[in-house]
Amino acid sequence: MVRCGGAALRKYGNFLDNLRLYVRGGTGGMGYPRLGGEGGRGGDVWLVAQERATLRSIRDRYPKKRFVAGTGANSSVRALKGEKGKDCEVHVPWGISVLDDDGKQIGELNAAGERFLAARGGLGGSLATNFLPCKGQSRIVRLDLKLIADVGLVGFPNAGKSSLLSKISHAKPEIANYPFTTIQPELGKIMYADYKQISVADLPGLIEGAHANKGMGHKFLKHVERTKQLLLVVDISGFQLSTKTLFRTAFETILLLTKELELYKEELLTKPALLAINKMDLPCAKDNLNELMKQLQNPQDFLHLLQEEMSHANILEFKDIIPISTYTGEGIEKLKACIRKSIDEEAEQENEEYRKKKLLLLQTSEEQQINRR
Q: Are 235 and 158 a contacting pair, CB within 8 Å?
């Protein structure tokens, strides 16, 4: 059983992964009617992904969260074509989804250097506008941060995800004996002997009801969407959040995690998944593991013994199940090898599908050329 410290819960308020901004393109410049001169177009507002940018830094540096581009220059005798107004660039973290004020996604920034036009500047005055300038586009946009990683660690609090990340990578996440150690995603990289790197995200611990946004569930579950594969981490001795909640066996924990993922977004269950059974250094761990493996091999034979809300549960199909101990180091190297193998297999499958598409396009193009002759 684990207890939740008040200090850990207070840290939830520091977790910032979405931000609303007001953006407005610059007004165009005035035209020059006597000589038919055109005013300069207003500047644009761009969102530019940068590696070290954070949503918190934007909020702290620009508390009003208003971004307005420059006004286009007026047409004059010396310059009949006015200069374009100065663009406004907002540096944002990569891994951002850009949504309008109605929640509709209008863009994404997935790598450093990518740009998104958030607000276009207005046209300068010309004959078509009776030489009067146009105002720039103005709107509210929401920046929604979703972590991008090769592997996402998923589990209930205190399953050992932070300890595991520190064992397999160079990341140094906070580790303690209260459940909500991880209150924001922590990113580490597994380094292999051939210099291959695989990014692993320690996602904050879920609780039952996370799919319905219980315990800030949506804030945490959305980061799972942007990971290529899942690594479920489960305590072999079971889990109990507090004296007011039910004790869950390792088997029930796996079913509940699957249920939370499925109810939040069913497509998450299509991701390749591995299962790490942690805390194998504890007494009775081997007996518990033998029982769990029987349950996982034929889950339908045991569902009738569970409570009604889990009796019709689905279960993820795991590519590998690896018993580990983050305390003794047991199984860690095997787990790293399984992660590498799974990532390489998926990459090869993607490459094969890409080659097939290219070949199909080439064949279609050749057929079309033959038909034209």
A: yes
- Residue 310 gets which letter from DSSP? G
189 pairs with which residues across the strands?
Answer: 199
Element (H, E) at 320: none
* Residue 135: CB atoms within 10 Å: 14
Q: Answer yes or no: pTM beyond 0.70.
A: no
Q: Exposure of 257 by Cβ count < 10 A (0-12 exposed, 13-18 middle, 19+ buried)?
A: buried
CB 159 within 8 A of CB 239: yes
Could you tell me the CA-to-CA distances from 307 to 209, 248, 311, 313 in Å, in that order?
16, 11, 6, 10
**Residues 261-276 pLDDT 10s:** 888 888 888 999 999 9
| Per-residue pLDDT tens digits for 88-128 | 999 998 888 999 988 899 999 988 899 999 999 999 999 99
Mean pLDDT of the chain: 84
Residue 122 buriedness (CB in 10 A; 0-12 / 13-18 / 19+): buried
User: CA-CA distance, 24 to 109, in Å (whole number)?
Assistant: 20
